[in-house]
Every structure is written in C-alpha cells, then in structure tokens.
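Let's do one together. I've listed all components of the complex below, 536 residues spread over four lines.
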Amino acid sequence: MINEVNYRVLYGDTDCGKVMYYGNYLRLFEIGRTELIRSAGISYREIEEKKGIILPVVEVFAKYKASAKYDEILTIKTLLKELKPYKIVFEYKIFKDHQLLTEGYTVHVPINKEGKIVRFPEDLYQLLASLLKK
Amino acid sequence: MINEVNYRVLYGDTDCGKVMYYGNYLRLFEIGRTELIRSAGISYREIEEKKGIILPVVEVFAKYKASAKYDEILTIKTLLKELKPYKIVFEYKIFKDHQLLTEGYTVHVPINKEGKIVRFPEDLYQLLASLLKK
Amino acid sequence: MINEVNYRVLYGDTDCGKVMYYGNYLRLFEIGRTELIRSAGISYREIEEKKGIILPVVEVFAKYKASAKYDEILTIKTLLKELKPYKIVFEYKIFKDHQLLTEGYTVHVPINKEGKIVRFPEDLYQLLASLLKK
Amino acid sequence: MINEVNYRVLYGDTDCGKVMYYGNYLRLFEIGRTELIRSAGISYREIEEKKGIILPVVEVFAKYKASAKYDEILTIKTLLKELKPYKIVFEYKIFKDHQLLTEGYTVHVPINKEGKIVRFPEDLYQLLASLLKK
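Okay, and this is what the predicted structure of the assembly comes out as:
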C-alpha cells in the first residue's frame, strides 16, 4: 500500500539557495510515515499512548535528485518496505508532478517507555503488516 | 546585566528571500535568554528539573529593521526587563557589528509541573533578580 | 474575509516541553497569510515574480494562551487587518476545535527588488483590498 | 584533518520525545562541514560568491545511536572523506563527552550558477585537498 499526501513548500522550508533546505525533507518523511500508519487504522500517537511503544529513527538516508522550490506542491509517497519483530523500514519518494525529486528511507526500532528494544506487540504487528499488502 | 552571545547564520536559518527566516529569530531569542539565565548561576534546565518551574512564553514581539544573511556573525544582547512574582520579561537586541537588525521581547509566566501558574520560589526569584543589577 | 486552513502538528514542530515550539507558530502564520492572499486571486509567489514586490515581515506579535500538542489538528484563521499604500497587516487566530490557542499579527511593507520601500502597485492594492470585504 | 565544533542543544531542537529531532542533526552536519571548509582557508560563502561554485547535498545518511537532550553540549567532528573532481564527501560524528550519538555523511557535487555539474576549479580543489592531510 502506498500512501500519498500533498505538501506545499513554505518560505520557511527554503534556504538562500532558493530551494528546500535538505534537512527539511525529513519533516516530509515524517508526514509520509505518519499518514501511512494512520491508514492502517492506528495513529502513531496511539502507538505511543496506547501500546506504550516508541519508534525512534535509527537510520535515515535521502538522495536528492532535483530541487523543490517555494510554493510548489509536492506529493509524498510512502510505503512500508520491511517489517520485522524488532525493526520497521519506511520508504519515501517525493514528487513534483511526475518528477521524482527526492527518495529515501528511515529505519525504526520499537522501544518501550524505559527505552529498551522490544518486540512489536502482536496486534500492532498485524496492523502494520496490513500495510505490506497492495 | 546584559548578556552577549554570538551566533553564525546557517544556510538552514535562511529562506529563499536570501535572509534569515523571520521565525528563526525566535531561536536566537531562546539562545539569548538561556545564556542570560545561566549567567545568574542557574541554568534553565535546572529551573525545570530542580525547582519544578517551567517558564513558557506567553507573548513574543519582534521588530525587524534589517536582514541577517548567510554566514554572518550576529551578536544577541539580552537583558531582564521586568521581574514580578508571576511574570518575567526578557528583552533582545540582535546586532551585526554595530547595526541593530532585530529587537524584541518575550513574556513568560512561572508554572508548576501541573501547569498551574505559581509564584517564583523565593531563592529562584533572588537569583533572577540579580540579573536586574548592572 | 477570513481564510481558514487546517494544520496537523508534527513531531518536528514540538519541543521537549511536549507542546509546539513557540517559534514554529510563525510558520503557521505564514501558511495563514499565504492562503488568504491566494484567495484574493493571486499567490504571494506571483506578487514577487510578476509584480516585483516583496513583503518582508517588519513586526510580529504572538500571544500564547494554550498549547498545541503532537498530532492535533489546528485551524489557522487569517484576516487582512489593515491595508495602507505602504503597509499591510495580517491577523491570525489559531484554534484547536473551538479553543483559541494563539493569536497574533504580522506587519509587512512592500519593497521592490532593490530593497526600497514602494507603494503597492494599484492593481495589486485593489486585489488585496478585496480581502477587507466580508 | 578533523574539525571539532561544539553545539548546545536548544529547546527548539528537541521534540516531544524529549530528545533532538532527527531532522535537526542535518543542521549540525551543516555546521560541521562549514567549519571544516573554513579551516582550509576559504569559507563556503566565498566558494559560492568568488568561485561561482555551489555544493548542493545529493545524498545524506545518518545513524542514530543515542539521543541528544536539551541543554547538552555536543561535539561535532567532521572530516573530508573523499574528494573527486566531481564529488566531495564529508563524514560526521556527533559526540556527547566520549559517547558517539550520531554518525553520518553527506555527498555533494560542484555545480555552477546555471545548475550544471562542473569540475572543481583547480585552486579550490587544492584548498579542499589540504583537508585530506592529517
């Protein structure tokens, strides 16, 4: 399943090179995975509050192919690339119309409130696994 | 007492107008008041952790007179403008060399961990009051 | 005319106080005025590119009454408060449901590409003036 | 040559997980490479303005091992990992005291003002190459 969400570039997202600052794409990645998770029927906030599981980013990669400019509408396409008992990987592609601007991924591990790595609770794992289907 | 701290403008602070984004000056205000408080012999982190007092911003004002550009070194000058049992006001002036770029203030109220407005504890009040002296 | 636009709070908008960082509301103000201007039939990008007019912020004020938290959906309500030949003032109110969280204003002056303050071109002035009507 | 620069974590850098937001580390990477380049005797701003060369990020990778918290002083250690006629790679390690929190790299390509990839000018190449020495 691919989640699509649009984002309009703010003045505050750009830098003096007149394009979106490279670090700000990681906010778009956050928007992408948040909305993908929501489409599985649970919000990330609920994962933290109700399941007691936090999913910190342990790795991020991004490849910048073309620039996003002020006021352009981008499309963030996100999919669940990999799901393991102790690991979840999201993949992102950011488009302007049909042009791929940026692609990347984030790796997360489930930890509990004490900061210890734990297995995904079974019900949460099944919900997330539903995102692997088409 | 006036605290002075320097700050070099990042690419990530600027916007496509080629100057520092107006919202990012509020980060500089934070740097200014944090270092001013530290000069009183307590850090803002200690105020939260040891005194149980949080000082949220309830008002901010900024006046932009001239622009800060990429890689410029700015000087943030901060002073304690007003201290009352239930209120604290910081004033900021941001300079490039001797040119005043931006000035403003923030108003904060002391709240406890439950989010209730409280009087400053006496010892903290005295520490902060020392910043009113020259 | 009041423009309304929704915004969902990102992890990246919040701070370790568990609420939206005070500086990030200025991004929401930007979203608000950008969409209000667009509703007048011209985008801010077009004002810069086609009219050669830039509208830098010369003053900002914000009053924080209650906090915005992660994943909450906010409503940004923006109106044109004042329009003069050399000045434009936008007013913002940010709500969560019916609760007013933050209100504020920004003052802008029209400058040309050389950075000189100029009168609004007549056609642009008329477009913006249409926002003063109900 | 390794450049070291300290950075104190702001409230505005953290998120509601009470640690530095993952995207904000890319600002620290920027600080690191900017100061490393400056130690070669030229600033990145001068590379843009005097050499007409821009060095956009085409790839970024970061691995997060431990969290940075509010008010902590971090050390950003940056080195030039690779220098080719059409490519430059910086490597970053961010420490709190002796604990490695985050490591990563950025890949940049030299482009001219028209956005075309070009070889590094010879004098600039030699300056940057000096960073490869111990």
